[in-house]
Design a protein that fits this description.
The complex is a heterodimer of chains A (1213) and B (284). With 1213 residues, chain A is of the alpha/beta class. Chain A has 31 helices and 30 strands. Classes of the chains: A alpha/beta (1213), B alpha/beta (284).
Chain lengths: 1213, 284
């Protein structure tokens, strides 16, 4: 079958056809053969039947002839005989024809012999006939046709002869011939059946052959067909699969058909197709790759990207797509005039120092590519070219491609990529097409950028305009508001003016009539006035006398009280108990006396109209509280019930003189308690009943309130109820003995109540108790018309009174310290005419470590003040000669004495006038011991404000002189020093109040000087550094440890020097208020927890740092300072034992948050307490500092007590 | 209640809400200005009424941030009101020169143009190296702009003109670098500037200053807040220190104005007096 396989399908098909044809031919032959047999048979049958027919025709003709011959013998007429002869002749001829026909046919030999015999027989027969015929003819030769032959003479003879002949001879001949013919037929039939048998046999055989051949051809056909079909089908299926694969796109697997047939060829052709398809698809896929790449590129740079962004995306995409390892993109800088390219995006590109980010046209490869507008490719990249770096190493790109991209033939930029392998054509083609896209997109991006920036600009402008509009509006509003305010006041003024004008006109009209009346009244008035004046003078004299008497009484009492108090203190312990008791009794009596005098003084003062009223806001609750506080003790002691009721309708505040009000209440309360033995006292603060009748005009029930004090005491009989308000009167003549008291209380109260614009009512039943009700206006408008203490009454020349005052006996002075004044000691000048008190003050001075000077007159005092320049002055106001007021004025008006603090001690009540004139304190005599001590403390505090000595340290003489000129005056004593050593010795021998220091000195620097001074035990005064040197921050900080202020020399420096110097010369030693200082001092002792703890203060605010460090070092802390976060970190590096950090937040260099974070980042400081200090107040700021790692948080300015409690918490271990 | 009364109430509520939720206190800002800003923002953000914004404001911090942005009016330019800079140069600088170290507080610095202007001025006077400028604003966003020091190029001609009018002696261009239609201020100018958030309505003094500038900020405050701010400045100023206000602002209505005197005629630059005044107060 291999043969088949190697055959072509055509051959196979041909082979099949041939086989079929072969068998067909065989079948045809077979059929032909059968046909042949049949036709042979037919032919035989035909020819034989022909023969038979011919034989029978011959036989027919023969019979005809025979019949005619017989007929002829009977014919009678020649005509009949003629027609019979014609018929006989035709038969004879036809017989001859048939016989020849028969003879021409294939005849069996036997038949031929028979025919031949027949012919002979036939000829015999004919001759016999002819002989008859001649006989008959001879008869008829001369007769007419219609002649009856029978009639002829011979006839019967001839006839009988012819009949005899025919009966013998002719019959025999005929029989013989007809027999012969039958024989021939028999022969033919025999032959025929013989032939038919043979033919049947043949045809049977042929059919068998045909059947066999058909079967054979079917078998062969089947076999060949199947095998061929199979070989073709297998090939085709393989082909189909292969082509399917191709259709599926598998162009790589080649078809494996090795056959030589058409399928093989088809396979070959398909393979060829596949190969060419592969080629085509390769072509197509590279286009595809390019297209995909371009599409991806397009996708990446889609959207409204900004130039840098788009550049980065482009280079990243292209590098990724080409698997380039490094890449950069440069865009033309539209800002530049010449073509300049700027790096805008890169891929895996590492900036190198010597490589530029900008290229001009023609500069470097990038510039060159832009210049040429063509791509440049480098294959062997030099060693020092940019390297592809990764975390693991670096390598050199093998292949560098620099391609410009153009838009409308304008260079938009240049793309540079480096790869490790050479780029293939499709990559190059991709690049080529990509740059086109990039160019367009870059151009678009540029346009977009421009558009966007234009839009943005427009928006910005709009916003800006809006903002400006807003500002303008607000400014306008502010101005409008101010204008409105101004307008309002203007309108008010106008209205007032209008009013004034109108009233002026009216007044003018009335004026004239008034003038007349006035003159009349004036005259009357003058009369009255004269009388009144006389009266007033009388009354005034009385009151003045009383007032001055009291003063005079108080002066000796002053010494008495203090001395007895000192005695009673028994400081030296040399008094016996009874002596001490006596001293106490003296003191007590003195005090009683003083009380009495005070009350007389008060009364007389009120009557003389010399009581000042000081109106202030008084909360009702406070009145109630003070009553309870002041009298609770006394009430409890006496076992009296007590109740205070406040009517809720009473306003919360009243306006009145608090001190006087309390004085009245005190009097009333004291009386109530005094005269009540059992029961209780009720105080009610309420509104007056509407029907209350006031005796004093002006007091209205609606605008007043009442304080009533009801007791259950002895009561006052009706007839005495008026009297008791008079001075020195009590209800019962004897009561004073029983109840004590001066009897002045109620008089004073009444007078005071009038002074305060109110009155006192009394309701009382003897034996049942009394109710005193004080009515006062809720709002006291202004002091009732009383003569002010300061208005000099022409009637009562107050000062004149003193002229009568005798000069003190010890005019010469006390033995004071004027001869032994010590420079180091503060000195106090005492101007006091009461020598006893002066002596007392002198002793006090000495006791407190001061030198004392005394003067008994103002004149002497002024003299001493000018001469000795005391540190402070204690001044009495009542002096012989010029009085204390004049002394004070003179002191304050003289530049030489202006700075000396003056403390007033006088029997006169303290007035604001004294302070206005420059006094620093005021004590009302008699002075209590404690008050005196306080006054001395106050003076001590003031000494530092005294301007004493200024040391100017400056080596330049001219400059020194100019400073002296600038600052030196009566207030300031300037001392000069040129060198550091001079300063050191100066400071050791002398105390200075301030030092101006130049940093550059001939023998040492200012720094060294200050450090040296610190080591000596000299007292360093406040230092003002005055230098031409520019200082570093560190130097400044270091200087700040010693110096109060630093001034850099310059145009304006002298001005500032003056300001600063006077600032420090005037400044208190410690700015902290006394109370606060005490508080801190108190805390100091209790806190062991603070001892030696190390605190780091981080703050750039020097004010805060110094304030904090002062307070904290007082508490025993060790302090470190840093001005910003960086410095703090540096300190924490070396100082590892810091206990706590106070961290400011807002600082230059490094802020607090960052500093805290960095501190916390260090393991060892993870638990270090850090307190954040900030000026910020918001919740978020608090959270921020905690988030940064602060332990706690504090707002600036720092509250010291809070800070300490916080420190206590965070330092607690 | 009339419509505008309701609106006024709404504004009070929204300002209260801001204060309670975020701690920013705008309640003492000039009312009319606040009303305009709030209404403008309401329109911009599409709310029908002001009170409708409150819930969002409480929950959405970014919404609040943008409202804040609306609140701060940042009209400023380099060497704005050049005359004032000239006065600083002539009257203030000579005195500042006598200090070894100078602290300046620019309160309400907005986008920082004037901070840089002052830095330039100090630089030219040779003082910048010993100066620390605290530039503060309550709005973090503008503060960031100030910190970056990047400004639009288009205004620079006006600024240059201002600079020259203020008495600038150098070439203004040396203080910035122009790029991409913007200018960025020279790095050296930023060195001594500390930008920080500080709210004049709620925060306190944080350091002692030689010079405080607060220009065109207080016009947005009501009298209360103006007083608070001025007291804050007073607490922060050294004796003899300087205070610069905007040219529509004044110390006239402030109680402490006795402690200050204008350094020149109509100028809005004041100097704090040395303490003679204080002294006389003490002795009382």
């Amino acid at each position: 079958m291999n043969l088949l396989k190697n055959m072509s399908i055509k051959s196979k098909m041909l082979f099949v056809v041939l086989v079929v044809i072969f068998f067909d031919i065989i079948s045809v032959f077979d059929m032909y053969f059968i046909e042949h047999i049949n036709s042979n048979l037919n032919e035989i049958v035909d020819s034989e039947s022909q023969k038979i027919i011919l034989v029978y025709q011959v036989k027919g003709h023969l019979a005809e002839v025979n019949r005619i011959e017989k007929n002829l013998l009977i014919v009678t007429t020649k005509a009949e005989m003629g027609s019979l002869n014609a018929i006989s002749l035709r038969n004879e001829t036809e017989l001859g024809q048939k016989l020849s026909q028969l003879r021409n046919m294939k005849l069996q030999e036997s038949n031929q012999i028979l025919i031949n015999e027949f012919e002979i027989a036939w000829k015999t027969y004919i001759e016999l006939l002819n002989q008859i015929d001649k006989l008959i003819k001879g008869l008829t030769s001369g007769a007419t046709d219609d002649y009856n032959l029978t009639s002829l003479p011979d006839y019967n003879k001839i006839y009988s002869e012819a009949v005899s002949l025919s009966k013998n001879e002719v019959g025999t001949a005929y029989g013989k011939t007809s027999l012969l013919m039958d024989e021939v037929v028999t022969n033919v039939v025999e032959e025929l059946s013989k032939r038919k048998l043979e033919s049947d046999r043949n045809s049977h055989r042929a059919i068998l052959i045909a059947i066999f051949l058909s079967a054979l051809s079917i078998l062969i056909g089947l076999y060949v067909g199947i095998s061929i079909t199979r070989s073709i089908a297998t090939g085709l299926i393989t082909m189909v699969n292969a082509t399917d694969n191709i259709a599926k796109g598998d162009l790589e697997t080649l078809i494996e058909i090795k056959s030589n047939d058409e399928i093989g060829k088809l396979a070959e052709a398909t393979q060829r197709m596949q190969i060419s398809l592969q080629a085509a698809s390769k072509q197509a896929s590279s286009q595809d790759w390019i297209k995909t790449g371009l599409m991806k590129l397009n996708e990446v740079i889609q959207g409204e990207l900004e130039l840098t962004e788009i550049s980065n995306k482009i280079i990243t995409e292209i590098a990724n797509y080409l698997e380039a390892k490094i890449g950069a993109i440069y865009l033309t800088d539209t800002q530049e005039n010449s073509l300049t390219l700027k790096l805008t995006g890169s891929y895996a590109y590492q900036q190198r120092k010597n490589l530029s980010n900008r290229f001009r046209s023609g500069e470097g490869l990038v510039g060159q590519a832009a210049l040429e507008k063509t791509a440049i490719v480098i294959k062997n990249v030099p060693e020092d070219y940019i390297k592809i770096t990764s975390g693991l190493g670096e390598s050199l790109p093998q292949y560098i491609c620099v391609i410009p991209f153009l838009f409308e033939n304008r260079v938009e930029g240049v793309l540079e990529i480096g790869t490790l392998h050479e780029l293939n054509t499709r990559q190059l083609e991709y690049l080529d097409q990509a740059v086109g896209i990039i160019a367009i997109n870059i151009e678009t991006a540029r346009n977009r950028d421009e558009l966007a920036s234009a839009l943005e600009k427009a928006q910005m402008l709009t916003e800006e305009l809006q903002s400006q509009q807003e500002e303008l509006k607000t400014t306008n509003e502010e101005l409008e508001e101010q204008t409105v305010l101004l307008q309002q006041s203007e309108e008010r003024l106008k209205a007032q003016q209008e009013e004034l004008e109108v009233s002026n006109e009216e007044l003018e009209e009335k004026n004239e009539s008034l003038q007349r009346q006035k003159r009349e009244i004036e005259e009357a008035r003058k009369e009255v006035e004269q009388k009144a004046e006389q009266l007033t003078i009388a009354s005034k004299y009385k009151s003045e006398f009383l007032a001055n008497m009291s003063h005079e009484l108080r002066t000796p009492l002053n010494s008495l009280l203090i001395l007895s108090s000192m005695l009673a203190d028994n400081k030296e312990g040399n008094l016996t108990d009874s002596q001490q008791e006596s001293a106490e009794v003296i003191n007590k009596s003195g005090k009683d006396l003083l009380q009495l005098i005070n009350e007389i003084l008060d009364l007389s003062k009120i009557e003389a109209g010399r009581m000042d009223i000081n109106i202030e806001k008084i909360p009702i609750q406070e009145i109630a509280d003070s009553i309870r506080n002041n009298f609770k003790h006394m009430l409890d002691e006496k076992g009296l019930a007590f109740e205070i009721k406040i009517d809720s309708r009473v306003p919360e505040y009243i306006m009145n003189d608090n001190q006087r009000l309390h004085q009245i209440i005190k009097n009333l309360m004291s009386n109530a308690i005094k005269f009540t033995k059992q029961g209780g006292i009720t105080v009610e603060i309420k509104l007056p009943a509407e029907n209350t009748k006031f005796t004093k005009s002006g007091l209205q029930a609606a605008k007043s309130f009442a304080i009533s004090i009801t007791d259950s005491g002895i009561g006052i009989p009706v007839e005495k109820q008026l009297i008791i308000f008079e001075a020195f009167q009590q209800a019962e003549g004897g009561t004073s003995r029983e109840y004590g008291g001066t009897g002045l209380g109620l008089s004073i109260s009444r007078e005071l109540s009038m002074l305060l614009g109110g009155e006192i009512h009394l309701v009382s039943t003897k034996g049942k108790g009394s109710t005193f009700t004080l009515y006062l206006p809720i709002h006291l408008e202004s002091p009732p018309t009383m003569i002010s203490s300061k208005s000099k009454s022409s009637v009562t020349p107050y000062n004149d009174f003193h002229k009568y005052k005798p000069l003190p006996r010890s005019e010469i002075t006390l033995a004071d310290d004027r001869d032994k004044l010590d420079e180091d000691k503060q000195s106090i000048l005492i101007i006091e005419d009461d020598t006893k008190f002066a002596k007392l003050l002198l002793d006090q001075c000495r006791e407190k470590g001061f030198s004392g000077l005394t003067a008994v007159t103002g004149e002497a005092g002024l003299e001493l003040a000018a001469k000795y320049q005391p540190s402070a002055i204690i001044l009495d106001l009542h002096l012989p000669g010029i009085d204390g007021w004049a002394v004070l004025d003179t002191l304050k008006n003289d530049a030489a004495t202006r700075h000396i603090p003056v403390h007033i001690m006088s029997v006169e009540d303290s007035t604001i006038e004294a302070f206005r004139k420059g006094a620093i304190g005021y004590l009302t005599k008699p002075v209590k011991k404690e008050e005196l001590d306080e006054a001395f403390l106050r003076l001590e505090g003031m000494f530092s404000r005294r301007i004493k000595d200024l040391l100017i340290v400056e080596d330049n003489k001219n400059l020194r002189d100019s400073i002296v000129k600038l600052i030196g005056n009566g207030d300031v004593h300037c001392h000069e020093a040129e060198t550091g050593s001079e300063v050191i010795s100066e400071l050791q021998s002398h105390r200075y109040d301030c030092m101006i220091l130049d940093l550059g000195l001939p023998d040492m620097t200012g720094f060294e000087l200050l450090k040296t001074l610190e080591q000596t035990n000299a007292v360093i005064p406040p230092v003002i550094v005055y230098t031409g040197k520019e200082l570093s921050r560190e130097e400044e900080l270091e200087l700040h440890n010693y110096a109060e202020s630093i001034i850099i020399k310059g145009v304006k420096s002298q001005e500032r020097l003056l300001d600063e110097t006077s600032l420090f010369l005037h400044r208190m030693v410690d700015k902290l208020p006394e109370q606060k200082r005490k508080m801190i001092a108190n805390l100091h002792d209790t806190e062991v927890i603070f001892k030696d703890k190390k605190i780091l203060i981080v703050d750039d605010d020097m004010r805060n740092v110094f304030a904090l460090s002062k307070i904290l070092s007082d508490k025993g802390f060790n302090l470190l300072k840093a001005e910003n976060g960086l410095k703090a970190l540096a300190i924490l590096k070396t100082e590892t034992d810091v206990d706590l950090v106070l961290m400011d937040i807002m600082m230059p260099e490094m802020d607090g948050y960052e500093a805290i974070r960095r501190i916390r980042a260090q393991e060892r400081y993870s638990k270090l307490p850090i307190i954040a200090l900030t000026a910020k107040a918001m919740k978020k700021d608090y959270e921020d500092s905690i988030a940064a790692g602060a332990s706690d948080y504090m707002s600036k300015p720092v509250d010291i007590t809070r800070l300490f409690s916080m420190l206590r918490v965070w330092l607690y271990r | 209640m009339r419509e505008n009364e309701i609106e006024s109430l709404e504004i009070t509520l929204i300002l209260d809400a801001i204060y309670s939720r975020y701690g920013y206190d705008f309640r003492d800002y000039a009312r009319a200005s606040m009303e305009r800003r709030v209404k403008h923002y309401q329109k911009k953000s599409g709310y029908k009424s002001i009170s409708e914004m409150i819930p969002r404001l409480l929950h959405d911090e970014t919404f609040f941030q943008s409202l804040i942005h609306e609140f701060s009016i940042t009209v400023t330019e380099m060497f704005r009101d050049p005359g004032e800079y000239r006065v600083i140069k002539e009257k203030v600088i000579p005195i500042l020169k006598t200090y070894p170290y100078i602290k300046v507080w620019h309160a309400g610095c907005a986008t920082g143009e004037e901070v840089y202007s002052l830095a330039i001025l100090l630089e030219e006077a040779g003082l910048y190296k010993k100066t620390t400028i605290f530039a503060t604003d309550f709005n973090d966003e503008v503060l960031e702009t100030a910190r970056q020091g990047i400004y639009k190029l288009d205004n620079i001609q006006q600024c240059t003109k201002n600079y020259q009018q203020s008495g600038g002696s150098e070439s203004f261009s040396q203080y910035y670098h122009a790029k991409y239609e913007s200018i960025v201020m020279d790095k050296s100018l930023k060195k001594n500037i500390t930008f920080a958030n500080h709210n004049l309505a709620s925060d306190f003094t944080f350091s002692e200053m030689n010079l405080i500038l607060c220009r065109n900020v207080m016009i947005y405050f009501n009298a209360n807040l103006q007083n608070r701010a001025l007291n804050l400045f007073d607490d922060s100023l050294l004796q003899g220190g300087f205070l610069c206000l905007g040219n529509k602002e004044s110390l006239m209505f402030w109680d402490g104005n006795k402690k200050y005197h204008a350094v020149e005629g109509n100028s809005k630059i004041y100097r704090k007096l040395y303490l003679q005044e204080e002294l006389s107060k003490l002795s009382r």
